[in-house]
Amino acid sequence: MMAPRWLLIGSLVVLMQFVPEVRAWGKEGHYVVCKIAEALLSEDAANAVKALLPEHAHGELASVCSWADEIRHYHDWRWSSPLHYIDTPDFRCNYEYCRDCHDSAGVADRCVAGAIYNYTQQLANCNNPSFKERHNMTEALLFLSHFMGDIHQPLHVGFTGDLGGNTIIVHWYRRKANLHHVWDSMIIETALKEYYGSQIENMTQAIQRNIMDDWSDDVAHWESCISNAMVCPDPYATESVRLACKFAYKNATPGSTLSDAYFHSRLPVVEKRLAQGGVRLAATLNRIFAPSIKLYSTTEGSIHII
User: Fold this and answer.
1) Of the candidates 282, 295, 298, 297, which has an alpha carbon nearest to the alpha carbon of residue 44?
2) Where do the domains of the chain lie, and which CATH numbers do they carry?
3) What is the CA radius of gyration of the chain?
4) Farthest-apart Cα atoms in the chain, separation
């Protein structure tokens, strides 16, 4: 599918109204993922990213990492909605690209993993003049950055029957919410209030310290892709559905109240997924914009440019 005509991102950010049912990290989560990634970019990747960012971003990728959420409910962008998530068979707790990566109409490759493959390939061709005439590279960068965050939210690879937790109504302390929204935003919002002085920069810095200290031995593994591929979202999706089963769905039945016990045991999972999303986004962009010969991404099936 050809990408639609570019719209002015700045005005859309101002005009966008959010709807109750969502399928993405909240704005804060996407900010953290992209802020972590920015600090880990190579010089070549940082220069390429800044060159592609819209002017109003002022050179900061994190400031526009929620754009893909902010436009997808507009008529011209509704086609992008299925690209934010993957629905897996109920209670299987596993993921398979060929089985699961499709939209509700059964169109293959239309899921968050497929979108990551597609936009990676677009950016990998950013110096090809004929390719640039057919694809908007700024859009490709913003979509890839956003979707790399999405695939690390466990309920983005949730069950088909409950739409990734969207139909499971619970109480987050005293507030009524669906389970997906708890994982998108409410765990992060509670952490910001309880531990970070309501400052997203404080949370970002704490996660960055953990990357350097507690998780330093894991970073090389997070960054790597099998067979030296340019991008590899399938293992990330597998991680997410397993975490969804082990942590998100567990003890979160319809009508239940989720409070301190759930919050304190799930916050470390959320923060680690934000860290992994940021590290892997940076690693992917570093590979895309490396000055050496580029490796091209493949899926289990053919790639269809969106």
Assistant:
1) 282
2) 21-288 (1.10.575.10)
3) 18
4) 55
* Cα gap 45→281, rounded to integer Å: 11
Strands of the sheet containing 257-258, edge to edge, are 175-178, 169-172, 257-258
pTM of the predicted model over 0.90: no
Count Cβ neighbours within 10 Å for each residue of 151-187 and write b for 16 or more, e otherwise: bbbbbbbbbeebbbbbebebebeeeebbbbbbbbbbb
| Element at 171 (helix H, strand E) | strand 169-172
Contact partners, residue 167, CB within 8 Å, separation at least 6: 161, 178
Give residue-wise pLDDT tens across range 165-199: 999 999 999 999 999 999 999 999 999 999 999 99
Asked whether the beta carbons of 170 and 256 are under 8 A apart, the reply is: yes
CA separation (Å) from 243 to 118, 150, 163? 25, 14, 16
CA distances from 148 to 37, 140, 263, 266, 277 (A): 11, 12, 24, 20, 6
